[in-house]
Amino acid sequence: MKIARFMMAAAVASISTTVATNASAESMTLCWAAWDPANALVELSKDFEEKSGIDMEFEFVPWPNFADRMLNELNSGGKLCDLMIGDSQWIGGAAENGQYVKLNDFFEANGISMDDFLPATVTGYAEWPKGTPNYWALPAYADVVGWTYRKDWFSRPELQAEFKQKYGYDLDVPKDLEQLKDIAEFFQGREIDGKTVYGAAIYTERGSEGITMGVTNVLYNYGFEYGNPENPYAELDGWVNSEGAVKGLEFYKELYDCCTPPGSSDWYMSETIDAYKSGQVALQMNFAFIWPGVNADPNVGGDRTGYFANPPGPAGHFAQLGGQGISVVANSDMKDAALEYIKWFAQPEIQQRWTDMGGASAMRSVVEAPDFPDKQPFNKAFLESMAIVKDFWAEPAYASLLQAMQDRVHTYVVAGQGTAKEALDDLVIDWSEIFEDEGKL
Amino acid sequence: MPDKTMDRIAKATPPQVATRIRGLSDRTIAWIFVAPTIFLLLAINIFPLIWTIRLSFTNFRVNRVNADVKWIGLRNYERILTDPDIWHTMQVTAHFLFWTLFLQVLIGFALAYLINKKFRGNDLWTTLIVLPMMLSPAVVGNFWKFLYQPQIGLFNYVVGFFSGTDPSSFSMIGSIDLAPWAIVIVDTWMWTPFVTLICLAGLRSIPDYIYEAAEIDRASKWRQFWTITVPMVLPFLMLAVLFRGIENFKMFDLVVQLTGGGPGSATELTSINLKREAFEKWRTGYASAYAVILFVTIFGLASIYVKALNRVKER
């Protein structure tokens, strides 16, 4: 009996202690992808914890499962996340389904102006509907698809001479996509330092969003449009599958067939990084977030690597937007604290520190500072890239639109089934059905 | 029917138990014991099933809780059954199912037959053979991805070594012709030991005196195999096929890790397709109808198969 009483007393004491601890320190959770910038944000957030007295907890999920995990959380009305750094494509669904808090009043009350951020990031990460001043996020991490190349290989006199003889122009940063393919072709299967190397590592992943994030960099520049800008949902035919778009898709397949390492049929961010860092490829397509890591890499970093924006094509000069905005989750019990965090994060000095620590601020005072382009070897390419961004649909039905494109493009580019025209015609049919289901037609 | 069951349980309960708890009848005591299980079964299995069937007649999307849910009758079923992409995934699943079962039965039985013979190191070989099925399917998918890598993969190297082709000239998971076989090979590698073990149990259950009687009757080894071994192992083999068939019909993790359903949709099994509809596109009503169709298909096929299994056992 005595033992039972003792156990009960111990349990009561333990519960009281826990309650007391919880009461003394508020805590909230920020959800994001598990990658290098997230670690930088943990460090940066220590300043917020110190100033606010609020403990920050973090829930980071690896990229391949990020959307699945976090959208499940939002859709199920979970309370795990108080702050969400969600992908740009989620904004439509999260806004229309009431999963994010609208931030207009908060921005106005706290003097946070969207004019202080790069316009493309405001449109891409914060606005819904697009092009209207309705803000659901603060631009948090600016990102874009760009290219890295082996500067040390490009500068070898014997390779330069051979390239010039073969193609009639200098081996240098490609001026357009055709030149990029020439360069990739030139390096494909070549022996360099006793090792067989290949042309380019490009996105081909099937399961999540990989091949779409890759192919759009070519499609945009060959004339692909998501629809008639005047009537985007109803008029897809002739825009999605325009003559230029078909040529763009053919180009991507040619690039995949001629100039990528064997077995690169399901590659996304991590596989392309691995291929580049291990010295397998001369060119690498990837989001700019990897550039600091490449620059610091002992094998390919420093002067051995150069960076450039996605080259133009015959119909324009664009690059696929990446990156995310930070939002307050509507279901959170800690909304005030979450807003406090956004207020803290939006300060210019914090944004500057964010960039210095390995983040990528979208604040103009940071990226338009006179010394910014020369601070890092990749900053110029980053700025050029951010000026030409274009994004995928951010509709509430973005996942259906994305999966349809993944399937059609992968079937043509990697599986080699059908023609580019058929793939894009089928995509028009898929997307039209989705918009019909959505009640947009 | 439940009353009869309760009566049976009550009768089976020792009298002391009933008399120990005064004021409660044997039937009540039986209900008290059975009720939690029935409640859990209803809550975890039956209710979700009924709810899924209900959702399958609506346009409900779990990510649009504020939107009106409309009753759309059989429209989801009609769309699924007339969608060529869904039929394509059914074909992919059928290919996967047929070849994995065929190979696993063939190799599994052969291995069991060999292991059943007494030889030195028999136990060690048995342990080694069953190792693959102890691994996680996701892990297996991942490491086979490396084995299939054209530049460094062991599989390509071995094929190249024996066939004289360049290992980097073909990609098992990147080729539309090879990828469906790539997933068959991995599943066969992983799950053949399961069939082997069940067959081994069947082989070891055959009494020696039957073979001895056959020897006395001068039956050849071949005849003994076909008239004693195969018929007596058949119920075990059919059980293994049932288990593997149900498992492979809903195969997901291994294939997702290995190919992600690609290239294109060459390895997109129904379970992968269903997951995309339900948890990527969030078409809950549509995915519910899809799940109901798959459930009915598996349930129907399994029922027919179990009847056949019982018939074999009765022989």
What key phrases describe this protein's structure?
heterodimer, A: 441 residues, alpha/beta, D-Maltodextrin-Binding Protein, domain 2, 2 domains, 5-stranded mixed beta sheet, 20 helices, 14% strand, B: mainly alpha, 72% helix, flat
SSE diagram, text form:
The complex is a heterodimer of chains A (441) and B (315).
Chain A: H1 2-24, E1 27-33, H2 36-52, E2 55-61, H3 63-75, E3 83-87, H4 91-96, H5 104-109, H6 119-126, E4 138-141, E5 145-150, H7 151-154, H8 157-167, H9 177-187, E6 190-192, E7 195-201, H10 210-222, H11 243-259, H12 269-277, E8 281-287, H13 291-296, E9 305-309, E10 319-320, E11 324-328, H14 335-345, H15 348-356, H16 364-367, H17 372-375, H18 379-386, E12 389-390, H19 398-413, H20 420-437
Parallel strand pairs in A: 1-2, 1-3, 7-8, 10-12
Antiparallel strand pairs in A: 3-11, 4-11, 5-8, 5-9, 6-7
Chain B: H1 2-12, H2 15-20, H3 26-55, H4 75-81, H5 84-116, H6 122-130, H7 137-147, H8 154-163, H9 179-204, H10 208-216, H11 221-249, H12 253-258, H13 270-279, H14 284-314
Helix pairs in contact in B: 1-3, 3-14, 5-9, 5-11, 9-11, 11-14, 13-14
Report on this model:
The complex is a heterodimer of chains A (441) and B (315). With 441 residues, chain A is α/β, with parallel strands linked by helices. Chain A folds into 2 domains: 28-143 and 322-390, D-Maltodextrin-Binding Protein, domain 2 (3-Layer(aba) Sandwich); 145-320 and 397-437, D-Maltodextrin-Binding Protein, domain 2 (3-Layer(aba) Sandwich), CATH 3.40.190. Chain A has 20 helices and 12 strands. Chain A has helices spanning 2-24, 36-52, 63-75, 91-96, 104-109, 119-126, 151-154, 157-167, 177-187, 210-222, 243-259, 269-277, 291-296, 335-345, 348-356, 364-367, 372-375, 379-386, 398-413, 420-437, and strands spanning 27-33, 55-61, 83-87, 138-141, 145-150, 190-192, 195-201, 281-287, 305-309, 319-320, 324-328, 389-390. In chain A, the strands form 3 sheets. Chain A has a 5-stranded mixed beta sheet with strand order 2-1-3-11-4, with helices on both faces. Chain A has a 5-stranded mixed beta sheet with strand order 6-7-8-5-9. Chain A has a two-stranded parallel ribbon with strand order 10-12. In chain A, strand 6 and strand 7 form a beta hairpin. In chain A, helix 10 crosses helix 19. The radius of gyration of chain A is 24 Å and the shape is globular. Chain B is mainly alpha-helical. Chain B folds into 2 domains: 2-55; 78-314, MetI-like (MetI-like fold, Orthogonal Bundle). Chain B contains 14 helices and no strands. In chain B, helix 5 runs antiparallel to helix 11 (221-249), helix 9 (179-204) packs across helix 11 (221-249) and helix 13 packs antiparallel against helix 14. The longest helix of chain B has 33 residues, at 84-116. In chain B, 31% of the residues are buried. The model of chain B has no long low-confidence stretch (mean pLDDT 90). The A-B interface holds A 67-68, 71-72, 74-77, 93, 96-98, 205-207, 261-266, 396-397, 399-400, 403, 407, 410-412, 414-417 and B 62-66, 85, 148-151, 153, 168-169, 171, 173-176, 256, 259-266, 276, 279-283.
